[in-house]
Design goal:
Number of helices: 62
Largest sheet: 2 strands, antiparallel
Strand order of the largest sheet: 1-2
Shape: globular
Structural class: mainly alpha
Radius of gyration: 43 Å
Number of strands: 4
Helix content: 55-70%
Distance between the termini: 103 Å
Length: 1436
């Protein structure tokens, strides 16, 4: 202990000029700590003395070096925290309160300089050391700062706020405690600025010293979102308070602010992202103070205030854009531009009458057009440029309309269909759809194609071809939407001109290509005299001309296929059909000419190939469009040229696909031999190129190349086309050999074992699965027969297992993997039996082979899954087709089961192998055993038709199989015991749960008893000494299945010598151990479910005299656990059910735990829903008792939200599902409960619980609709509740002070937070409830005359009370502290009109005279006028 003995000595020591006071003695901080900790050392106002000394030392030595500075000495802060915490908590009875002495102390010793110095030091401090100091610093500041902040002016507050910003910037972030310190300071600073009279000075200092740090904190503090919002609000209050906005308006510029921002943007480009939020906040504050900023005189033109706000917003936008323009064009700057324009769109700031607005946005448009032409790695600038144009289109489409002819050529060159491009095109289409000018957009599209010139393009012709067809304009989504627009919005007078313009443009592009082709076809002598450079240029021009023709044909195909012929006259329709026939003939002529040129070796192949493919697409599209009459194809010359061209190995893959489709189409009009010859070329291509490799096709034909990869993709595209469209046609003319080749190609694809990896595009495996799951494929008889024969050939090729290797085994298993994907119903009985026999044989071979365990497990899983599908199919195996015989419903002969018994023995023996311990194989094998065992026990269907002798033989045959299986179960020992027992219990519990009309033989019942003893022997020792862990869950589940098995109706007829009572009961042993076990959530879930299931199954074995006590135990066990397995009351007797309800009601009344109450309410809801017959009186008494109990819970509305919701849910389900149980006393309890939930509260939840609102609405609606006979006696209560509901849809005005806000919030219920008011959906629900008052319905009760009652409503009885409900709405409308949003008023109109229809003119006039003031009368007149407009008066 210190040598200081008196209080005077203690004070002199603290005030001594040196530290320590005595040389070689203790330091002052050590003396102060010892005196404070010594409770027997009495010092008057000890806490005040210590705090005075510490704060004074902080203030005097705040500028010392870091190592000597007491601000960073944790001993001082710890002592300070202990002292003020003790004083704040009350301390001893003789000490003064902290509120008395601390404010006076802080007025003598200013704390702000200390805080500023501390924050600056923390910014320079090492993060590790700072982390050790900050916790105790924050604890002290949390107590001192509220007292200190009250005495600081705005300038001093700004200094503290700036010190925090500096510390945050210097420390490159903040820990949790520094974040909380910053939140305290920022909140106090914002309140100080709001109440300051010198805002302009604060604004100037903030701009000069702290703006950069403030911007950087907001830009970089993504992990501290809460702090960022608080600090941001404080800064915005400084920048955009009313005084500053007035000065800005008077000077007509925000130069000062943006001059301060500009250097920050240069030094830190991340700050760009703050500008959009800054812009939005500026508009928010301008609108907030619009009454003070904008003149409201009578001479002002209507709408001028909004115009002035728009002008100020555009001026601010121009300043932001000017800051961005001086920086290099990048993704960041463009993302900020888009965000700024989104604010303009959201706040509706653009006014086309304002010249400055138009100029500012025109400048943005110019930058956007330039950015589209800038090529980057990912075209990011182009994407943002298009997003910018999309936002401008939403702001005012008239700015974009003149730019469409310039934009489409630019979009044509953009690679990749980015979503931004498609959204922009959707906006353009939407505008043209509304203005019915889709034809103009299509013509602009055509004109964009005409602008393609080789001299003005940087891309080669092939790059242009790929980019254009994969770009946004020719994207399938855009063309599909254009097609829909043409079909829907193209008027009759626009159809023919558009079709003619499209055809003329198509002919022009062809003529240009053809003319350039003729230039190259000059004589050799003339060609030698030509300049080589000119020749190269001509070839380039021809390639570009070919690309233009292809693109125009794509567009023409869309236009011609989408013409709305149904919307034109018959005469015009004939003219259009004639035009389309000309187009088809035109495409055929092009094909003839180009096919001829393709055979010449001196002609360039690529342009001719793409022109041919485009012409083929156009011809096919017109031929199948349905717009023109199909004619038989008789152009033999074209057919021969196409047949010759498809044999060329160097043919462009895109053209090969189109030629194949053309030939398939033509084969409809050819003889069988010609069709087979054409199909053989496609088959040869598939056999050569469709290989099993990781290849995928994007679905775009223009992306197919001539290399090996491109040919594989072409084969995949060809196969996709065949199976999607042409397989039925091919079946009609193809030979059996060709079908075999086709099936062989399809089967060569195979299905991978691991399908978890997803690759974009179409894959061969996906195509195979699509084929095997297609009903169309299986309905093709010839194809189906060839396919099944091929599969059978693969399976039967390896019947001799002596010479079978692993590769052939994998091939056979692969065939079974394919069979798993196809519908088993399409297999004939003989096929099913044959496949099943071979699968069982292969299963035995694989099980006994030396194959690796992983491969063995996978192969066995496939085989047994197939067998399970076959055995679970009705009529799955034909008795005449195989010696494997399963009971067939349609065949009642005696069945042989020898081979099936062998299969069961094999399956049980294989379960002991290591390969069985695979989860998938485990589940598959168990499922297979279930299916086979169920077959052996016979189907109930058809048993009545069997003769007694046949049935007897069948019964004992099945018994032999069951005995064989039971013996196998009972004899297995070793480490596989638990696994085998689990599978056995699953099999028997599944199979024996069926209700058989016959009893089993004595031998079988004895075997069952033996199995029961085996299971009990395996489980009881472990469970009786149970250590609650995850390993014990399976044992508990097995005992549950064991109990469930022997409580089934099939085995309740066991002979008397089988002692069921001897079975061990483990439920009472398990639950005491479970209650003391603290495992993780997943483990608790599994163990509790298994234990409670055992307890419920054991309940059936107890005698009647013991069931009552056991029922109490089950209920208590359930309450002690979470709601994993809810009980059902339908299996209980009436006395047991009544006892259970009494037990729950008593516990609800006396138990105060919210968790227990929630569980009890869940049980009650389930029991009332599934109550036994004859328990109406018990349920009525229980529900009434529960409602009274709810009213006795005084803390219900203030309790956990889960308990409140569960309570209301109980009432909702009681009123909606069992309305007949309700009595007149229950209605009063319900009204009281709802009133309590709607009553005002001074304390509110952090988040609004809208579920409570909806549940209250559901309760009232159910009572009105279903129990009108009871509600009619409590109409005043109904009116009171409706008035409360109307009053809570109000919204508090945002500009109110704390006292005014509290006046409103105190009238709101606890579950409704004023910051999260009710939404549109809640108002709609309330309106529907008001309409329910006038809706006729039938009462649902147990009255004897319920069948003869008439449907009625509450309109007439409630008419005397409806006026007061309307008055509540009028009061809410005229409340000066609240708002009723326009959307809410619109949604409420239907319900208000229903009230108006009830009260009538007389009650309306009485309400106007006696209950409304002038504002209320005006509101009532307006409402009644709108009601009169929509009311039906019977005149029309």
């Amino acid at each position: 202990m210190t040598s200081i003995k008196t209080p005077q000595a203690f004070i002199r020591a603290l005030k001594a000029p040196s530290d320590p006071p005595v040389q070689g003695g203790q330091l002052k901080i050590e003396i102060a700590r010892q005196v404070w900790d010594d409770l027997s050392f009495l010092v008057p106002n000890k806490a005040e003395v210590v705090v005075d000394w510490i704060l004074g030392k902080f203030l005097k030595e705040k500028d010392n070096e870091i190592t000597l500075n007491p601000l960073l000495d944790i001993r001082f802060w710890t002592l300070l925290n202990d002292v003020i915490s003790s004083a704040s908590a009350g301390g001893s009875s003789g000490t003064r309160s902290l509120k008395i002495w601390l404010p006076n102390l802080l007025s003598r010793i200013p704390f702000a300089p200390t805080l500023v110095a501390l924050l600056r030091l923390l910014g320079r401090l090492d993060p590790t050391l700072r982390g050790s100091v900050n916790p105790v610093v924050f604890s002290s500041l949390a107590i001192i700062w509220p007292f200190s902040a009250q005495r600081l002016n705005a300038e001093t507050m700004l200094e503290c706020f700036g010190a925090f910003l500096t510390a945050y910037h210097g420390g490159h972030g903040a820990d949790d405690y520094l974040v909380q310190i910053g939140s305290l300071i920022a909140t106090s600073y914002r309140n100080s600025v709001v109440n300051s009279s010198n805002k302009k000075k604060v604004y100037t200092v903030f701009l000069q010293n702290y703006l950069a740090y403030w911007l950087e904190l907001h830009a970089l503090s993504s992990s501290d979102a809460a702090l960022s919002d608080i600090v941001y609000d404080a800064g915005i209050e400084t920048l955009f308070n009313l005084d500053i906005l007035r000065r800005t308006r008077d000077s007509k510029t925000e130069t000062e602010l943006f001059e301060a921002i500009a250097p920050v943007l240069k030094s830190n480009t991340e700050v760009h992202i703050v500008l959009p939020r800054l812009f939005a906040s500026y508009i928010e504050y301008v609108k907030k103070h619009r009454g003070a900023l904008v003149s409201q005189g009578s001479s002002r033109v209507h709408g001028s205030a909004n115009t002035e706000i728009q002008a100020q917003g555009i001026q601010f936008l121009a300043s932001c854009l000017s800051l961005l323009d001086v920086h290099e064009q990048s993704v960041k700057t463009w993302s900020v531009r888009v965000a700024l324009l989104e604010v303009v769109d959201k706040e509706s700031l653009f006014d086309r009458r304002n010249t400055e607005s138009t100029m500012v946005l025109d400048r943005v448009i110019g930058h956007a057009l330039n950015s589209i032409e800038i090529r980057t790695a990912n075209n990011d600038l182009a994407i943002y440029g298009v997003e910018c144009l999309s936002t401008l289109a939403r702001i005012d489409y008239d700015m974009i309309v003149p730019l469409v002819p310039r934009l489409l050529p630019k979009l044509l060159l953009l690679p990749g269909p980015h979503v931004s491009y498609l959204n922009f095109l959707d906006l353009i289409l939407a505008y043209h759809n509304k203005t019915r000018t889709v034809n103009a957009f299509t013509e602009c599209f055509l004109n964009a194609l005409s602008t393609i010139e080789p001299a003005s393009l940087k891309n080669s012709s092939t790059e242009l071809y790929q980019n254009a067809l994969s770009g946004p304009l020719f994207n399938a989504t855009h063309l599909q939407r254009l097609s829909k627009a043409l079909q829907t919005f193209l008027s009759g007078s626009q159809v023919l001109p558009l079709a003619q313009a499209t055809f003329n443009f198509l002919k022009q592009t062809w003529e240009k290509f053809d003319a350039e082709g003729r230039t190259e076809e000059r004589s050799p002598k003339r060609r030698r005299t030509m300049n080589m450079e000119s020749t190269s240029l001509t070839k380039s021009q021809k390639d570009y001309s070919a690309v233009v023709f292809v693109l125009s044909s794509h567009l023409a195909m869309t236009v011609f296929s989408s013409l709305p012929l149904h919307a034109v006259t018959e005469e015009l329709r004939d003219e259009l059909r004639s035009l389309l026939s000309d187009v088809r003939n035109f495409a055929a002529r092009i094909l003839k000419k180009v096919m001829k040129s393709l055979t010449k070796s001196d002609q360039p192949v690529w342009p001719l190939s793409i022109v041919s493919a485009a012409s083929l697409r156009l011809w096919y599209a017109l031929d199948v469009s349905g717009h023109i009459t199909p004619v038989p194809f008789d152009d033999e010359k074209l057919y021969k040229r196409a047949l010759k061209a498809i044999q060329d190995e160097q043919l462009l893959p895109e053209l090969f696909v189109e030629l194949s489709r053309f030939l398939f189409r033509v084969c409809l009009h050819k003889d069988q031999s010609s069709s087979q010859a054409a199909f053989s070329h496609s088959l040869a291509y598939l056999e050569k190129n469709l290989q099993v490799s990781p290849v995928s096709w994007s679905g775009q034909a223009h992306g197919l190349s001539l290399d090996e990869q491109g040919q594989k993709e072409c084969a995949l595209a060809l196969m996709h086309m065949i199976v999607e469209r042409w397989l039925p046609v091919i079946e009609t003319f193809a030979s059996t050999e060709q079908l075999k080749r086709l099936v062989r190609v399809i089967m060569s694809i195979g299905i991978a074992e691991d399908t978890s990896q997803s690759v974009p595009g179409l894959q061969a495996e996906t195509l195979l699965l699509q084929v095997l799951r297609s009903a169309q494929f299986w309905e093709l008889h010839k194809v189906r027969v060839v396919f099944l024969n091929y599969v059978e050939q693969i399976v039967s090729a390896h019947d001799d297992f002596s010479c079978t290797d692993s590769a052939s085994t994998s091939t056979t298993v692969g065939a079974y993997r394919l069979l798993l994907t196809l519908p088993v119903e399409y297999l004939s009985r003989s096929n099913r039996a044959d496949f099943a026999r071979r699968a069982l044989a292969l299963d035995r071979h694989i099980s006994s082979s030396a194959m690796p365990l992983i491969s063995k497990s996978k192969h066995l899983t496939v085989l047994r899954a197939f067998l399970g599908r076959v055995f679970s199919t009705p009529n799955g195996i034909d008795s005449s087709a195989s010696s494997i015989v399963i009971f067939n419903i349609s065949d009642y002969n005696v069945l042989q089961v020898e081979e099936l018994c062998d299969a069961l023995k094999h399956l049980m023996a294989s379960m002991t192998s290591p390969a069985f311990f695979d989860e998938r194989l485990d589940a598959t094998t168990t499922s297979l055993l279930k299916s086979i065992f169920l077959y052996l026990l016979c189907h109930k269907t058809g048993i009545d038709d069997l003769s007694s002798e046949t049935f007897k033989k069948l019964q004992y045959s099945s018994s032999d199989v069951v005995l064989n299986l039971i013996s196998t179960f009972a004899q297995i020992n070793g480490q596989a015991r638990l696994q085998i027992e689990k599978a056995s219990s699953q099999v028997f519990s599944f199979s024996l749960q069926a209700n058989f009309d016959f009893s089993f033989s004595d031998e079988l019942q004895s075997a069952m008893q033996q199995l029961s003893q085996t299971l009990s022997t395996a489980t009881y020792p472990q469970l009786s000494t149970l250590q609650i862990e995850m390993a014990s869950v399976e044992e508990m589940r097995m005992d549950w299945r064991h109990k469930s098995l022997f409580s089934s109706p099939s085995l309740r007829t066991l002979p008397h010598d089988v002692n069921i009572d001897a079975l061990p009961f483990l439920g009472a042993t398990l639950f005491p151990k479970l209650s003391a076990w603290n495992g993780d959530v997943a483990a608790r879930c599994d163990v509790h479910v298994a234990a409670l299931a055992i307890l419920l199954e054991e309940f059936d074995f107890f005698p009647e005299c013991d069931r009552s006590s056991r029922l109490d135990y089950i209920t208590a066990a359930y309450i002690s656990t979470v709601n994993f397995l809810p009980p059902s009351g339908s299996s209980l007797s009436a006395p047991e059910f009544s006892q259970l309800l009494d037990l729950i009601a008593e516990d609800l009344n006396y138990n105060d735990s919210p968790e227990v109450r929630i569980n009890l309410l869940q049980i009650s809801t389930i029991l009332l829903r599934s109550h036994p017959q004859g328990t109406l009186k018990h349920t009525q008494a229980f529900s009434s008792r529960c409602l009274r109990t709810f009213l006795s819970w005084h803390d219900l509305t203030d309790g956990p939200i889960e308990l409140r919701l569960q309570t209301l849910d109980f009432v909702v389900k009681h009123c909606t599902e069992q309305p007949a149980v309700l009595r007149i006393g229950d209605i009063g309890s319900i009204w009281s409960l709802i009133t309590n939930f709607l009553a005002g509260s001074r304390v509110h939840d952090n988040n609004t619980a809208l579920e409570i609102f909806h549940k209250i609405i559901n309760i009232i609606s159910a009572l009105i609709r279903l129990r009108r006979d009871l509600v009619i006696h409590t109409l005043p209560h109904l009116g009171s509740v409706l008035r409360q509901l109307l009053m809570i849809v109000r919204t508090v005005r945002s500009s109110l002070g704390m006292k005014q806000t509290s006046l409103v919030t105190d009238t709101l219920p606890r579950w409704l937070n004023a910051k999260q008011p009710v939404g549109i959906e809640e108002v709609k629900a309330l309106a529907r409830l008001l309409e329910t008052l006038t809706t006729k319905s039938m009462v649902r009760n147990n009255a004897p005359n319920s069948e003869t009652q008439k449907a009625e409503s509450l309109a007439k009885p409630f008419s005397k009370h409806a006026a007061y409900v309307l008055k509540a709405y009028i009061t809410a409308m005229n409340d000066p502290l609240c708002l009723l949003p326009l959307e809410h008023r619109k949604e409420l109109q239907r319900g208000l009109y229903a009230l108006c229809s009830m009260i009538g003119d007389h009650n309306r006039d009485a309400l106007m005279v006696s209950a409304l003031d002038s504002g209320g009368k005006l509101t009532m007149k307006t409402l009644w006028k709108e009601y009169e407009k929509q009311r039906y008066v019977g005149k029309g």
